[in-house]
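Fold this: ABC transporter domain-containing protein
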Amino acid sequence: MAFEGVSFGYSKDELVLKHVSFHLPSGRVLGIVGRSGGCKTTITRLLFRMYNPQCGVIRLNEVPLTDMHLCELRQRILRKMLLSLYSIDSMLPG
């Protein structure tokens, strides 16, 4: 997954994310922490395409999210999340 120069605002006049870029290699897990109002939920909503960024691009396996069907995108993300949770659970004792 990659965010490349992503900017987003719930209104056009007030951006809450400004030129955010990061790359998460396949198979890695990302934890997002921060204070209330720190855009954690916004990033998740952008990843699930509940919103589209005003500028920049979000990619999954090098493919822009806007090129994917919503159902396929959401199934792929949820599948990865469930597999990650299963791996973490199998490492815990008892």
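The two ends are 33 Å apart (CA to CA). Residues 29 and 81 are 9 Å apart (CA to CA).
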